[in-house]
Amino acid sequence: MYKAVQGVRAAAVRVVRAVRVRAQLGAARRDAGMATAEYAMGLVAAVAFAVVLYKVVTSGAVSTELQDIVKRALDAKV
């Protein structure tokens, strides 16, 4: 009877190992697209930030201030 228990235990260990391996492979497959999704979200955020920055820099008040800063820098005496 002891050998029967060992056989059942060994079979259970094989099943648990097989389930773990399949779970790890499944997790790897599910995570494979995450890098692409994160990359796309980062790209969208960067483009949105660039658009906002462009709008701010090309607005009238900021544009005038930037031109004044450049003029003062070029007129500076060394």
Task: Describe the protein's topology.
Blueprint: H1 2-31, H2 34-57, H3 60-74
Q: Could you characterize what this model shows?
A:
- This protein has 78 residues and is an all-alpha fold.
- The chain has 3 helices and no strands.
- It is rod-shaped and about 95 Å long.
- The model has no long low-confidence stretch (mean pLDDT 80).
Residues in β-strands, percent: under 5%
Helical fraction equals over 70%
Radius of gyration: 32 Å
Distance between termini? 99 Å
Overall mean pLDDT score? 80
Continuous helix count: 3
What's the main sheet like?
Answer: none
Q: What is the 3D shape?
A: rod-shaped
Structural class: mainly alpha
Number of distinct beta strands:
0
User: Which segments are poorly predicted (pLDDT under 50) over 5 or more consecutive residues?
Assistant: none
Order of helices and strands: HHH
